[in-house]
Amino acid sequence: MKRTTRRIGVLATVLAFPAVLLAPSASAAPVRLSLPAPTGPFAVGSTDLHLIDHSRQDPWVPGTTRELMVTVRYPALPSGKPKAPYMAPGVAKVVAEGDAAKLGMPSDRLDYRFPTHSRVGAPAIGGKRPVVLYSPGGTLSRSHGTTHQEQLASEGYVVVAIDHTHEAEAVEFPGGRVEKKALPPSSIEVSKRVIETRVRDTRFVLDSLGLTRVGMFGHSAGGFTAGETMVSDRRIVAGANLDGSMAHSQSQRIFGRVADEGLDRPFLLMSAGDHSAASDASWQEFQRNQRGWTGETRLPDGEHFSFTDYQTLLPQLGNAPAAFVGTIDPARSVAVQRARLSAFFAEHLRHRSSDVTKVSLSQAS
Description:
about 375 residues; alpha/beta; Rossmann fold; ten-stranded mixed sheet; two-stranded antiparallel sheet; 1-alkyl-2-acetylglycerophosphocholine esterase activity; Lipase
């Protein structure tokens, strides 16, 4: 399947999620899903933070204040604390219903409350730690990048994953309140507003946690977000884009600032399937204007959602649709991505940690 719809602009990324049918299962019981275990030397702790930006109105729901949920994963001491569920209950229900409809299976077979490898509130290991931010793809949850988040945390990073409220299919806040997607119909102007909102969300998280020198990576629109935030905020010293267009419209060549202006800091590109710098005009423009280091890692047998947890979750449901995660061996895909991201942040961020990391960890220890 060609993914030309994704290259039209950032909003096409997940809105064009292919409707594919999995092989029917003889059992109606929920599939016991799991994620690959992180391979770093540290155990992983996690805590969720509710951040309210009292200076800003929500751009998608008039009359409401902008509020976010973030998950902080960090190197932790071994602990008997409970394992964090993959998704909060309200989010798990909404995402399962949507995925089941697209995959042609009953929603009660998808239980996204399965345990991860992170322990809720596990005691944090002290000392300075490099910090990496994560932004998910369009309409996706911060949970969809858990594999990468846990891996980096197990290697010694503090990873802060951001949900973009009312763009994600669902975000659950304290008390069980669930805020669902509230985006208007897709257009170039809406795409610009989406990215502008994401950039403001990211900068607000940096402000709230007192972070001054971080890395950032994201899938799809999250990768676009990383680059756009770097244009206007020098606190992000290294970024990575996992298969994300950096255009609001490829056909009209309406690109983001990161493509038009480039960066003077390192920025990694990762692509899959028929998408690469050779086929994406916004990436070509970025490479022409980039002043700092850049490089590309491509998974030719992968697909757009190979850079999310779907790479390993879908095969557990049966015949994983190639249009979604490609034909690449899931274990190999994860190993290649882990190695590349780890090497990138080790080179460009590892020795640039901030002593204020403990602001975010104080609520977890």
